[in-house]
Every structure is written in structure tokens, then in C-alpha cells.
Amino acid sequence: MSWNPPISLAPFSRLWGTLAFRLTASYALAGLFLVFFATASLYLVLVSELEKSTDLFLADKVHVLRTMLRERPDDRDALREEIELESAARRYEQFYIRLLDERNTPLLMTPGMADQLDLAQLASQTQSRPDRTIRVKGRDGRAFRTASASAPVGSLAAQTDTIEIAIDVSQKEELLARYRFWFWAILLATFAIFPLVGYRIARRGIRPVEEMATTARHITSTNLRERILPEGYPSELASLASTFNQMLDGLEESFERISRFSADIAHDLRTPVNNIRGEAEVVLARPRTADEYRDVIESCLEESVRLSDLIGDLLFLARAESPLTHLRRERVNVGELLGGVREYYEASAADGGISLTTNVGDKPVVADLDRTLLQRAVGNLVSNALTHTPRGGAVVLGTGVDFSGVDFSNTDFSNTDRSSADFSTIRIEVSDTGIGIPPEALPRVFDRFFRVDSSRSQGSGGTGLGLAIVQSIALLHGGNVEISSQPGQGTRVTLHMPASSSCAR
Ligand SMILES: Nc1ncnc2c1ncn2[C@@H]1O[C@H](COP(=O)(O)OP(=O)(O)OP(=O)(O)O)[C@@H](O)[C@H]1O
Ligand SMILES: [Mg+2]
What we know:
The chain is α+β, with helices and mostly antiparallel strands. Helix content is 53%, strand content 17%.
């Protein structure tokens, strides 16, 4: 059977869940503890100091009387003055002394002592604890500290008298009582004020966090412009705010790219579909000859091929981003692969009056790569180079091995049992002497659907996905791609790939 508390604890646990409450509670408890500790220890010090000063006074008096009894036992006047007159002359903290002989017969006594104190009780109490001062209550309830001491009489100590002494400490006790009153008053005030102050401090401290939360709440996919102004924030929260702002910058950029990407996809899909539809509508408007139908069907087929290529490219990019994508790695002789690509594009290079050559050196460059993907990447680069190189220009495909920045292209591996694939990275370059790319466009050429001159590329059939695919292929292999270009002089794209699969992701 489960136990249900008589009152619901949900509101308390909700309150405990808030940072402000926890900070307030910790602050108030710490403050309360500190004030309690400080005032209580001061009180104890005060009590002990007051007791010490009283005890010192009593000890002093006893010492004076003992000296007098030992050294001038017959000087009764001096003793009387010490016992009867000096005390009577005091207004505050009056003390009383009684001198008894060995048979406990009072010899001298401060006037009024019997009115203030129960002497029989005093004698029994003080004599039972002869070396200590003790607290006793007077007849009217006033507090006294008392002590008793034996006092040898004369230098030969022929007899021993007893000194009983009591001092009124009621004023000191009143002082302590006033202290205790203020002690509890201060504790009560602390208990009331500290949570309020703590709450204000906690709220001030967490205000920046709340502002960040409010900003975060206002952020939607259509409103990524909100930023936090970290002015006046403590440095820890200012750095959190600027990290948050940086994250928003990144998100805004990604969202913009995605929405541009979607718009580009829609546009690039619509164009061929519209073309097919337009041609079909025109040709169906009236009867046509067989040749006319053939022309239109051929044109539609061309558009369908473009459409399916575009969809294929998009699918490839989407799959390349999936962490589940696996490469079919095999040992690839990169020089031979470049030769194959060169042969494939030879005819179109010749048509454009461009020289297409390979520069692969004598030593084989071998690496663990996905042959089909590499062909596709190099093919895209060659196709770009041929498209953007005017008649009479040159396109060169090259490869080499790098090891920690050292060029191994001239190293002879034939006398060792190792091949270049055991070394760090291989380099594959496609360079041309074409029109080049303006510097401001260079950082964006790997973006999807980016074309330097969209109207021109559109005409030449480019969708702006070629370099994005090249970059995905490089990343899939654990490598990267670099581009450098001089407008009017040419462009060079370099793929850096880990030579052995163990170096890749
Ligand atoms: N070798 C080059 N010389 C000059 N400009 C280039 C070169 N390579 C790429 N570019 C520029 O970069 C843009 C992006 O190239 P990318 O290969 O991604 O797209 P595309 O060639 O236009 O279309 P796709 O390759 O998808 O058919 C090109 O439109 C072109 O403007
Ligand atoms: Mg291209």
C-alpha cells in the first residue's frame, strides 16, 4: 500500500525546480548560518569575558584580605575598612564579604549582607566547592557570584579564618539578557530579510538566462534574425550569449541555404517539365507529320534525360550525406583512371579545339578508392574545365603523392615492398587555361546550384551541382577539395584523398 502525504508536494517540488528558488534558499540559509554563528560566538565570548572579569575581581579581593590577615592580623581597622566601608561606598556591582573564624563565628561582615543573601546556604554552597566561584540567587532574586577561601592568620598561621565573598552580577546578567534579545531579533530579521535580498540577487543573476530563453522562444524557421545583446552580462553569460548568437548565425545561414536550395530545385525541375509540356501541347494543337512528331519526341527525351540526371544528382547528394553510405573501395591506379577519363572526354575536347592531356609521372600512384565515384568526380571537373576553356586552351589531369606536405611524386617505390598507398595522401588535379572564376565567387562554387553566371550556365545545361558532388565524394573518402583560379588565366581544382582506407573515416 503506498503512502500518500496529506498535502500535495507538487507545488513545492515545482518551486524547488526553479533556479531562483534554489539560489534564494541557499543564500538565505548561508546568511542565516553566518549571522547565527557570528552572533552566538560573540555572545559566548562576552559571557566568558564577563565571568572572567568577575572572577578576577573576587580573586583580587581574596588576595588582598589574605595578605592583610597574614601580615597585619591585628590591624582590625584596615580589615574593617576593606570589608565594611569599601563595599558600602559602591553604587553598582556591590560586593559583600564575611570573615569567619575557625568555629565559623562571624568576625566581620559587610553591612546588609544578611539582607541580600541567605548566609547559611551561601556557606554550605561555597565551602563545598572551595576553589571555584559559583552563581547563587540573592533573597530578592538578584544574581551573585560567590567564592570562599581559607586565610591563615599571622605569619605563623596559628589559626585559619574563612573569607566568604559575593558580588552582585545582576547588571551583567541584564546586559547578557539584552544581548540575547537582540540576538534573536537579528536572527529573525535575517530570516525575513535574507530570502528577499537573496531572491532579488538571484533574479538579477538569472535575468540574462531568461532573456536568452525569451529570444530562443521567438526563434522560428521564419524568424532567425533575433539576437541577444550581451551588454552588461557577466563574462560567463556573455560568452554563452555570443556562442548562442554564433549558433543562430550558423542556423540562419543554413536555413537560407536550404530555402535557396529548395527554390533552385523547384526552378530546375520546372524548366524541363515545362519544356516537355509546352512542346507536347504545341505538337498536339494540330495534326503533324511523322518527322515533326519524331523531332518533338526526341526533344522531350532530351529533356527527360536532363530531368533524370538532375534527380540522380540530387539523390546522390542526399545519400552522400547519410552516415550509412558505404564506399566500394578497391586498389585504384589513379594514373590509369585519369587516362580513362581523358579518353572519354577526348572527342569533346577535340571538338572544342582544346588539348586534353594527363601528367601522371612514371611511378604508379595507387590508393584505396571507390573507382566509380572517383571517375564521376574527375569527370565533373574535366567537364567544367572543357566548358569554361576557350578554343586553343589546355586541360591537364595530374596526380601525385603527398606525405606530411612532402611531395612523393619523384620517389621510386619499386625497390621497396611498399607502395604509395601506404603513405599519407594522394593528390588529383584538374587544371585548365580557361576563363577562370572571379575571386568573390570562389568561396561559393561548392554550394549546390551555385553558378557563376547562371544565365550562361543555364544555356550550357549546367545545374550547379557538379562541384557539390565532387566535394561530397572527397568528403566521403575522408579527403577534401581545393580550388584556385585567376580570371582570364585558368582554374585548378585539387582533390586530396587519404591513400589508404585506414586513414579515411
Ligand atoms: N574550370 C572552371 N572554370 C571556370 N568556372 C568554373 C570552372 N569550374 C566551375 N566553374 C564555375 O563554377 C560553377 C559551378 O560549377 P558546377 O560544376 O558545380 O556546376 P555547373 O557546371 O554549372 O553544373 P553541373 O556541373 O551540375 O552540370 C559553374 O557554373 C561555373 O560558373
Ligand atoms: Mg559542372
